[in-house]
Design goal:
This protein has 4 helices and 6 strands. It has helices at 22-29, 40-48, 66-79, 105-117, and strands at 4-5, 10-14, 34-36, 58-62, 87-91, 123-124. The chain has one domain (8-118): Rossmann fold (3-Layer(aba) Sandwich). The chain is 35% helix and 18% strand. β3 (34-36), α2 and β4 (58-62) form a beta-alpha-beta unit. By secondary structure, the protein is α/β, with parallel strands linked by helices. The strands form 2 sheets. A 4-stranded parallel beta sheet has the order 3-4-2-5, with helices on both faces.
Length: 125
């Protein structure tokens, strides 16, 4: 039996990709189901595709211009038909400070936000 998601997906806008992107690595190890999109148009496609059995918890995309892409995405979400209301998080790791355990304050805050939006056990089998 396919599991179904009991929450709306989270859209995560990330800054420019780096060679060792800590957020990508953290997402890969996290409990969340994820999908990387190539642009904001593919993000919308991923969260609104009714032909798939399960929508990922987090759809993330790396963008060059965070503010412009966020504004465009929000306008597209408002204009979209249907009653889904995905949460959007804009995360730029530029301002994070390193902790002694090689984590970042920014990743801790991001993890907290995702835990709040996607509670554990939010899937039905």
């Amino acid at each position: 039996m396919t599991s179904t998601t009991l929450h709306q997906p989270v859209i995560l806008l990330l800054g420019k990709r780096t060679s060792q992107d800590e957020v990508d690595m953290w997402l890969a190890k996290s409990r969340f189901s994820t999908c990387e999109a190539s642009d904001v148009f593919q993000v919308l496609e991923q969260i609104s595709d009714f032909t798939v059995g399960e929508t990922p918890d987090v759809v993330y995309v790396h963008v060059d211009r965070m503010e412009a892409e966020l504004e465009m995405l929000e306008k597209m979400l408002v204009a979209a038909d249907g009653d889904f209301h995905a949460s959007v998080i804009a995360y730029s790791g530029n301002e994070t400070q390193k902790l002694t355990n090689h984590d970042t304050l920014g990743l801790v805050a991001l993890a907290t936000q995702l835990e709040r939006l996607i509670p554990a056990g939010s899937h039905n089998n």
